[in-house]
Amino acid sequence: MTDQQAIEQLASWLNHSSFTVVLSGAGMSTESGIPDFRSHNGLWKNFDPAYVSSVEALDNHYDLFNEFYSLRLQDVETCSPHEGYEALARLQQNGLIHAIATQNVDGFHRRAGGKNIYELHGSLHNIYCHTCSKVHSAEDFKKGSTCSCGGKLVHLSFFSGSCCLRRYGTKPCLPFARQIWS
What we know:
Elements: H1 3-16, E1 21-24, H2 26-31, H3 49-52, H4 55-60, H5 62-78, H6 83-93, E2 99-102, H7 108-111, E3 117-119, E4 122-129, E5 135-136, H8 138-142, E6 153-157, H9 164-168, H10 173-181
Parallel strand pairs: 1-2, 2-3
Antiparallel strand pairs: 4-5, 4-6
């Protein structure tokens, strides 16, 4: 099949679909300059995920946890969604795509104008207190602030061992889990 034939086939599928969902992953983010985790140049080549991106890191090495995710937030703030994100948003605006499910935590689908975005691994932008669930800003997190209750600030995205329902029962994670998985 030629490239032109593939494009025509995709257009036909989109035009005849009653409900189209796009699944996106790390390739979208890396095209915008966000490092991935597992490639030959991925973040895990320089960082031990168990040490900087886990519940253990949150509990025992919070300074490193905070530094690692503050750098990730900085990457997201200095990069921009590329034209692929904008193309998907236009396809949504034209009614050809109805939802986007993404493994990315950078929020670029939303920044490009996408709607009905399902962030399967959460978002780096949703910061809350690990103790009382109070919502905080990314700036508070990057400054290393603590909550007024004394709790540590965390982001609502997947990190190793972070299955909040398994580890923490229904509080404080369940209200936040409902936001992204409802």
